[in-house]
Design goal:
GO terms for molecular function: transferase activity. It comes from Runella rosea. Keywords: Transferase. α1 links the parallel β4 and β5. With 90 residues, the chain is an alpha+beta fold. It is 28% helix and 34% strand. The longest helix is centred in the middle third of the chain and has 16 residues.
């Protein structure tokens, strides 16, 4: 699966079988805000949201971007994967 950062639409996207799953974000004062994860109904149950989360979180770590997480899926994912808990800001 190929994941891209669609800067113009403010989201990370993965196209699968003609459908697009994505993670919406917003930049504000030098911080990336993770807002929402969406996976089309026909693609659910394939682990796409988790794959998007790994890509996005690894990108954030690699680029050393300050991050605020508002997306419930990302919050839960980080709680269940302690290797990403260092990215959480108070």
């Amino acid at each position: 699966m190929n994941i891209i950062n669609n800067v113009e639409r403010h989201r990370f996207e993965a196209e699968v079988d003609g459908e697009v799953a994505f993670v919406e974000y917003q930049w504000k004062q030098g911080t990336i805000y993770i807002l929402h994860t969406f996976v089309p109904h026909v693609l659910r149950g394939r682990g796409l949201a988790a794959q998007l989360a790994v890509f996005v979180l690894n990108t954030i770590r690699q680029e050393q971007w300050p991050v605020k997480i508002y997306c419930p899926f990302f919050k839960k994912y980080i709680q269940e994967h302690p290797e990403y808990q260092d990215l959480m800001q108070p």
